[in-house]
Amino acid sequence: MSALSGAAQGAVLGLASAAAPGPFQAILVARSLRAGPLRALPLAFVPMTSDPVVIATVLLVLGQLPGSFLRALTGVGAAVVLWLAATTLREVVRGGAAGPGADQVGRGFVSAAAVNVTNPNAWIFWSAVGGPLVASAWRASPEAAIAFLAGFYACITAGNAALAMAAGGMARAGPGMARALGLASGLALAGFGTWQLARVIRG
Predict the structure, then answer these.
(1) What letter does residue 172 receive in the DSSP assignment?
(2) Alpha-carbon distance 15 to 172, whole Å?
(3) Could you tell me how far CA 6 lies from the centroid of its own chain?
(4) More confident residue, 182 or 75
(5) At how many degrees (to 10) do helices 142-171 and 3-19 cross?
(6) SS3 per-residue string spanning 56-102
(7) pLDDT beyond 60 at 103
(8) What is the CA radius of gyration of the chain?
């Protein structure tokens, strides 16, 4: 694999990951509605800061861990997502859409990172798709592996930023639209959290 093909593969997968519905995307939309798109933009960088934990674990030790590890991780993720769903829906009921202070924005980043690193989809992706591609690219050429990761994170970050700006733009259509989008993102978070919790219960 050449560096160019590695970057191209990473770019395609990054755009696909940003466009795929998931708990992180719902959090990004909810933050954009509550705090405004500019304050939501830092969350676009969450995968870049939290994924290295997933990648390193997948490449080094995940294959040696029991299946109960992923179930426990799913349970933690479900709890975080459901808490964020409750917070989002409470804000919609109260009608609060004012931007929070810097400390709340910081907590939003940490919460989003916690959801991302405990999202089983991220572990599945890096175990089944991303990890093998990076490992294969590294064996062929370290430059190709680096190019793959650069392309992936450049495109997933750009896609997340575009989603935050689009949600903020729709919210400016009026308070009714903002409340509807906030309700939708809160219900989406509740749905994702419930689905993850059901997976843990079913074992």
Answers:
(1) T
(2) 26
(3) 22
(4) 75
(5) 30
(6) HHHHHCHHHCCHHHHHHHHHHHHHHHHHHHHHHHHHHHHCCCCCCCH
(7) no
(8) 18
Q: Residue 99's pLDDT is what?
A: 40
Indicate whether this model's pTM tops 0.85. Answer: no
pLDDT tier, 13 (very low <50, low <70, confident <90, very high otherwise): confident
| Residue 45 binned pLDDT confidence (cut-offs 50, 70, 90) | very high
CA-to-CA distance for 81 and 130, rounded, in angstroms? 24
Q: Which amino acid is at 65?
A: L
Confidence check: pLDDT of 169 > 80: no
Residue 122 CB: number of other CB atoms within 10 A? 25
Cβ-in-10-Å burial (0-12, 13-18, 19+) of 65 comes to exposed
In terms of pLDDT, which residue wins out, 38 or 60?
38
Backbone angles phi, psi at 70, to 5 degrees: -65, -35
Q: How many helices and strands, by DSSP H and E, does the chain display?
A: 10, 0
Where along the chain do its domains lie? 3-202
CA 149, 152, 155, 158 dihedral sign is negative
